[in-house]
Design brief:
By secondary structure, the protein is an alpha/beta fold. The protein is built from 13 helices and 13 strands. The strands form 3 sheets. It has an 8-stranded parallel beta barrel, surrounded by 4 helices. A 3-stranded antiparallel sheet has the order 5-6-11.
């Protein structure tokens, strides 16, 4: 596994975070196209896990948010992930929130973002997925879907259904993102009445799509870490009622307890990285207690080491996903976590 990231990180951290993100992916794409990644990166050993009828090459995946539009699928796959999740994508293109909208907190190994589902729209993403070698070769690719900012929260279900219909044919699984704090009122969908209506609409749409395409695609739900135990239990019960296949715990937090005294610590948006690790793990524990083995849990939030990945699995997760940890630790984190979780 390459370790050049430790030399590149100080230079990248001198740049605006969003610009550094773009430059990193531009370089990663070139390295992939020139065949360098295959020579420089040792992929994790095969460690397949089967969940929801899907066989994952290893239990370490890419979380949604890093590649919102599916522009870098093949380069990311070359880093050794067992699966990739792309998005969040919305039915219509949208620019997201005004810049600046991403902030590093290196003292806390954390990031605050208020991107606001900036993406080119679901149809553009689907076209990119179809062109990727990873998808053409049968790689496990999840599509994370959300609603447009201009759509009233009362009509959110219509956006999710539109997005699901657009990605259904090409997605290995579909994740319903109700947990971003950066789209106004989106987290209201955690409430019983709105969540019941949303899951009901998605259930009916999936039945129609299953009949049309002759395959039932797994449907996952991604939730927030800022929930009370009673709310988590209610969500777990609704997932079982509507036949949702798995739950992803968790997205970013709106809490600032761990970073309030740091530069940028009180910027609006979702906080990810090390400060969300404990809250995410506690949500996983609560879900596992409520669900038992009835529904698999995918753990994400604050994984910056193999030990952190083990913590998620010990709490009840079957798979893990990485995002902010890659920013602070680099691509070698994938293999480190895979080694720690090797069965």
């Amino acid at each position: 596994m390459i370790d050049s990231y430790s030399f590149l990180r100080p230079w990248l951290f001198c740049l605006d975070p969003e610009r550094a993100h773009q430059m990193t992916f531009s370089s990663l794409d070139r390295a992939y196209q020139w065949g360098l990644l295959e020579r420089l990166i040792t992929k994790p050993a095969s460690d397949p896990r089967t969940l929801c009828g899907i066989t994952f090459a290893n239990p370490v995946g890419l979380a949604a948010g890093l590649d919102k539009d599916g522009k870098h699928i093949d380069a990311l796959a070359a880093l050794g992930f067992g699966f990739l999740e792309i998005g969040t994508v919305t039915p219509k293109p949208q620019p997201g929130n005004p810049k600046p909208r991403m902030f590093r907190l290196p003292e806390a190994n954390a990031i605050i973002n208020r991107m606001g589902f900036n993406n080119d729209g679901v149809n553009a993403c689907v076209a990119r997925v179809r062109r990727s070698r990873y998808w053409q070769n049968g790689g496990v690719l999840g599509l994370n879907i959300g609603k447009n900012a201009s759509t009233p929260i009362e009509d959110a279900a219509s956006d999710y259904v539109l997005a699901m219909k657009a990605v259904y044919e090409i997605a290995t699984y579909i994740t319903v993102n109700i947990s971003s704090p950066n789209t106004q009122n989106l987290r209201d969908l955690h409430g019983e009445e709105m969540l019941r209506a949303l899951l009901g609409s998605l259930h009916l749409a999936r039945e129609e799509l299953s009949n049309r395409f002759g395959v039932r695609k797994p449907l996952f739900l991604k939730i927030a870490p800022d929930l009370q135990q009673a709310d988590i239990n209610l969500i777990a019960d609704l997932l079982l009622e509507f036949g949702i296949d798995a739950i992803i715990a968790t997205n970013t937090t709106v809490s600032r307890t761990a970073v309030a005294t740091l530069e940028h610590g009180n910027e609006a948006g979702g906080l990810s990285g090390a400060p969300v690790r404990k809250a995410s793990t506690e949500v996983i524990k609560t879900l596992k207690t409520r669900l038992g083995d009835a529904l698999p849990i995918i753990g994400v939030g604050g994984i910056l080491s193999g030990q952190d990945a083990q913590e998620k699995v010990s709490a009840g997760a079957s798979l893990v996903q990485l995002y902010s940890g890659l920013i602070f630790k680099g691509p070698e984190l994938v293999s480190e976590c895979a080694r720690a979780l090797r069965s």
